[in-house]
Queue: 2 jobs
Job 1
Amino acid sequence: MEQRIAVIGAGTMGSGIAHVAALHGYQVYMIDEKPGVVQTARVRIHQRLDREVEKGRLTPSEREAVMDRLIEATWDHVADAELAIEAVLEIMEVKKAVFQTLDRVLGPEAVLATNTSSLSITEIATTTRRPQNVVGLHFFNPAPVMKLVEIVRGEETSDDTVQRVQTFATSINKEAVVVQKDTPGFIVNRVLMPLFIEAMRIYEEGIASKEDIDKAIKLGLNHPMGPLTLADLTGLDVDLNVMDYLFQEFHDDRFAAPMVLRRLVRAGKLGRKTGKGFYNYDGV
Ligand code: 3HC
């Protein structure tokens, strides 16, 4: 079983993945090209672990052991990682550059996984000399809490690679599903984006208030949060990127982003991160 993993990108998803892996005993190399981002992520993880200590689920010494396993690293330090999980910006060229570097610095047996929420695993894999070791490993926000990971096969992903990430997922107490064909949005986002889009259209058309749209889905479908609140949590910029990509790939209006979403993103109102997302928006 893998013992050392590298997590590339220490934003919301990267830090959540690092958190859950360290909690389950992995030594985690954390890399982010922006100075200070890994330190900020470590502070946030420490705060989360403090709450676990307060609730009596962790002892202070266990918390310190988890923190000790979270290592701020550079590319020079990660050569012995058996698994790398990339969680950088959802932009193909940015991901490809990371995979090229991972391919160069990690041992030949290492698995290279991407947390992409929609992009093609096969295309990302083309930048490496080991496409059989490249796989999608899609976590959900907040990663420490959400049970699911989607394992996504690229055209050349080997069974052994799928098996290794399945074992990894089980070892960090996640449930995995395997997406057998590399298709945009995989399972969850292919279903979730039309839900967001339809909720936003209902709002745009003046059919119901944001509060009532969310309440309807929460209570009518037993979802933990309404779609407009959830769209803010996942980040409106991320949502728009995913919708645009799905629209481009499927040529289908099911995935056409509502104008209200595009306007909010252009205005820098990105949801959770700024506190100024869809839910705090009053116009149409
Ligand atoms: N990190 C770690 N733990 C967190 C957390 C975070 N960011 N946010 C909440 N938690 C923990 C809390 O500590 C609490 O733990 P406890 O029950 O063990 O004490 C637990 O989660 C519940 O949190 P709260 O009591 O604060 O609030 P809620 O009960 O309302 O739960 C929620 C919050 C877990 C976010 C819940 O509302 C939920 O499940 N919402 C839906 C989330 C969802 O659908 N995510 C998927 C988004 S799609 C996606 O990510 C794909 C991407 O590609 C777009």
Job 2
Amino acid sequence: MTPKSIKSTTADTNLFHPPKSIVRKANIKDYDKTYERSITDREGFWADEAKKLKWYKKWKTVLDDTNKPFYKWFTGGKINIVDNAIDRHLATHRRNKLAMIWEGEPGDVKTMSYHALNREVSKFANVLKSMGVRKGEIVTIYMPQIPELPIAMLACAKIGAMHSVVYGGFSTEALAGRIADANSRVLVTADGGWRRGKITDLKSIANEAMDRSPTIEVCITVKRTEHEVHMENDRDFWYHDLMSLPIASPKCETEVMDAEDPLFILFTSGTTGKPKGLVHTHGGYSVYTSTTHRYVFDIKDEDRWWCAADPGWITGHSYLVYGPLINGATIMLYEGAPNHPYPNRWWNMIEKYGITILYTSPTAIRGLMRFGDQWPQRHDISSLRLLGSVGEPINPEAWRWYHEVIGDGKCPIMDTWWQTETGGFMIAPLPITPLKPGSATKPFFGVEVGVVDENGKEVAAGEEGKLVIKAPWPGMARTIFGDPDRYVDTYWKEYEKQGWYKAGDSARIDEDGYVWVIGRIDDVIKVSGYRLGTAEVESALVSHPMVSEAAAIALPHEVKGNAIHTYVILKAGEKGDKKLEEELKKHVSDEMGPIAKPEAVHFLESLPKTRSGKIMRRVLKARAMGVDEGDLSTLED
Ligand code: PRX
């Protein structure tokens, strides 16, 4: 049967109008008027949104742009994100509302009301305090998707410490490097997590990383998988032991923070060198994540919201933890693989818990689509009213499957374009926006985007160019931790005169003003929606004793979107064969984590380079794809 919304749009098969039932109840009824106001009266618009939060003290200035590009928001204001995400709900009907539903991969379930969440967060905040954790200090968190992960994040924020969450799929080198950069004294981890019926041995990885990390004094470990792990005297403590001590009192004052005080750092891959720790703040980030979440996903008190991203990435920070909790939603967290033990796992949970909004990535959709319609069709998933997508462009085939099979043709798909750096949605539809599959549609309120050519000149409608953002927004990262110059160089240098932010993506804007993001134009690779730098993969390869030089590129992959292909030059006298190829793949996986494992390793005698010695990855890519190699005038040889 053809879903209704498709039938009604036969005049333009590419335009999907949201059903009237959704439009009628939408939190925002008019995009154009609100957008216009948000641009002509930017500060007024954001002040009105900020007023919806709880402030200990109101701000003096909405936007302070006296030291561009180091913009400040709501200066003079006093706030704590946890006061908004938890404390203020306790005096309302939400006290006994479910804040979190969690399901472990083996099938164990935990639920927590806002009251219970407050107790757990307060108790752990007191534990951290007893370990000497102070305002401004950075606690590193390396955990599977268990309730203690958001609890640890919130506990840090509550006492004014910053967190640095390292994705649980990363490995030793990646973790050690991030601990060192953050100068962390305290690490919170777990013995392991469940993934596809197997234990991921996080504690062993953490132990190896701590061997390389002289700054760590304390490691707190949650018992999850209960397998044998090594605990070091004086350094290692069990979470449950500490939480049962009198110091873990359920009463803890929430620290009063300046709006611009840092909330967390989150490392993400860049064009060159090491991953950079982007800094987000209590004030602007609270306003931005809650506003975007409330309007784009049309959040209502009765919603059950499932953001299926890992809390270890920005999507998890902004839309699994902070934005939804500020909006008083019930959040869903699931520990394991989407297809374990069978490919109906997600659909089963949607039915069981009555999930109303699902927010996930194109790669997850493609992965589940592969198993066929019969898996979702076994379940009554009619509780869904909205769907979301993030991480990479969604291909029309996956869009249609998501829309028709998962959304029964009645759930609009919110394709949200944004970045670790932006803190929240930048280009995204509202539930009232007519959709074009593959386009994130239009800029969010207060966001001005442009597409420009090599000279920074705006291109004509429909033409491809570089995506820029023309004005500041409250959720923007304030700097790169410990490296403000790099922040300026990476994002603001190229369009210094215009004062624009460089997104690093290519895009086009069509005649209707819809934005089509095409992909990265720098050396960042998106694999299964995860962001990796070619530089990191290359440095993992050259850390192998037989490798002298390496280059990594992305080539299209049916499920992952992109896959990593690598080219290596071996040290003199070494010979490349199948066995070494497998060894090098495993080496990268061991150093960085399974997501960085290359699809292929090719052995070469030389790499295409510019005369100044830079590897020309685009030449490798063009060759691999059998397309024109383009301008080779800068090629050395
Ligand atoms: O290339 C864009 C792609 O993901 C990049 C940002 O990656 P990260 O910082 O890891 O954040 C991902 C989650 C917000 C962007 O530069 N990207 C993200 N969302 C989309 C997207 N590309 C196309 N469409 C999207 N909806």
